[in-house]
Amino acid sequence: QSALIQPASVSGSPGQSITISCTGTRGDAGRFDFVAWYQQHPGKVPKLLIYEDYKRPSGVSNRFSGAKSGNMAFLTISGLQAEDEADYYCCSDAGNGIYDFGSGTRASV
Amino acid sequence: DVQLVESGGDLVQPGRSLRLACVASGFTFSDHWMSWVRQVPGKGLEWVAKVNPTGGGRAYVDSVRGRCTISRNNARNSLYLEMWNLRVEDTALYHCVRDEAHGFNIWGQGTMVTVSS
Known about the structure:
The structure holds 2 protein chains of 2 kinds.
Chain A: E1 4-5, E2 9-11, E3 18-24, E4 33-40, E5 47-50, E6 64-69, E7 72-77, E8 86-95, E9 98-101, E10 105-108
Parallel strand pairs in A: 2-10
Antiparallel strand pairs in A: 1-3, 3-7, 4-5, 4-8, 6-7, 8-9, 8-10
Chain B: E1 3-7, E2 11-12, E3 18-25, E4 33-39, E5 45-51, E6 58-60, E7 68-73, E8 78-83, E9 92-100, E10 103-107, E11 111-115
Parallel strand pairs in B: 2-11
Antiparallel strand pairs in B: 1-3, 3-8, 4-5, 4-9, 5-6, 7-8, 9-10, 9-11
């Protein structure tokens, strides 16, 4: 059971926007800091899309945006394209030096 | 090119030990935190362990703590993960990753560990 809960799947049509949520469940037993988001296509290594809640690494499309409020984080993909069909994972600093990954969300276009 | 290349994965019996290695190139290895992240084929990602740039600070996921040591040799641009008392549930593809600002921005292709009798 992951400490970060994501919906199993989301879907949208080309050109639309979709939002993937990530809910931290550690509560007072941990933190939910510096959320990052990763995209993974089948057979490929994950790619960093968002770090420190909302920052985009150089080279990542501005169609990907991150936000956080309380114990929830969100990844929004705007202008959905066929190549966005992939698995998406959130990850946070849970305190005490450890990281939690989310359960993963399959995005379909 | 910035690159991480893992090695050392193998098929081992439960209870045995294994040492994974990762060689970094294309960046100043000694400047960065490094982690191991594993993934059971077809399943999700799990962070395993991390080490600070000097090797003096380490952290582990609960499921491996006490059975695992992460270490590094900055002179050799190398990261290691030594695991003992391996369990079936340790079976996964193990990735070496560079940690920058709490984001894993460089990933190796991974080395497969299979624990089975």
